[in-house]
Amino acid sequence: MPTSTFVESAFWCFDVLFVPQQHPARELQDTFYTSDPPVSLTRKLYYERVATVHEKGGYGSTGHQAPWSEKESKKLLLRTHATASSAHMLYKLAARCRGEEPDDDTNEFTHGAKPTTAYGKSHAKEIENT
Predict the structure, then answer these.
(1) Architecture category of domain 7-128 in CATH
(2) CA–CA separation, 88 vs 61, rounded Å?
(3) What are phi and psi of 91, to 5 degrees?
(4) CA distance from start to end of the chain
(5) Residue 38, by phi and psi: left (phi above 0), alpha (psi -120 to 50) or beta?
(6) How far is the C-alpha of 12 from the C-alpha of 47, rounded, in Å?
(7) What are the residues facing 58 on neighbouring strands?
(8) Is 120 exposed, middle or buried (0-12, 13-18, 19+ CB in 10 A)?
(9) With 0-12 CB in 10 A as exposed, 13-18 as middle and 19+ as buried, what is 75?
(10) Which pLDDT tens digit goes with each residue over 62-72?
(11) What is the DSSP letter of 14?
(12) pTM higher than 0.85, yes or no?
């Protein structure tokens, strides 16, 4: 499983793992948000499903019964744990099982941003090959 993506969206790091948007772990002292680029792109249908489960429940859950913000979910941050990578990988595998072909990370979500320096590129490639 690739874990070399260090910039992640709040959607993958928190929302798909059912962490409430009002949870203290999302505050600045616990999470480092990026300013350039400040937000990720989204896949609307999946965002809508996650938003519905957060707000109203589903799949046996009553949800958080609190408003869900797409703006909050799109924020980019330094990945706080590798479980976000697991959630994204499971999403891709499930999409393939349904006969869908998920887009490349860099086109689907900007959380797949690659390093821009020469050292960063060679280092990222080295990590991906391990």
Answers:
(1) 2-Layer Sandwich (3.30)
(2) 21
(3) -60, -45
(4) 10
(5) alpha
(6) 10
(7) 61
(8) exposed
(9) buried
(10) 999 999 998 99
(11) T
(12) no
Q: What would the two tokens of residue 21 be?
A: 């948007």
Tokens 């994204």 sit on residue: 88
Q: What is the pLDDT of residues 51-107, one digit of tens each?
A: 999 999 999 999 999 999 989 999 999 988 888 888 888 888 888 888 877 654 433
Tokens of 128: 């991906």
- C-beta separation of 64 from 17 below 8 A: no
Q: Please give the structure tokens belonging to residue 68.
A: 């869900």
Q: What is the DSSP string of 29-95?
A: TT--B-SSS-B----HHHHHHHHHHHHH-BTTB----S---HHHHTBEEE---THHHHHHHHHHHHH
The domain locations on the chain are 7-128
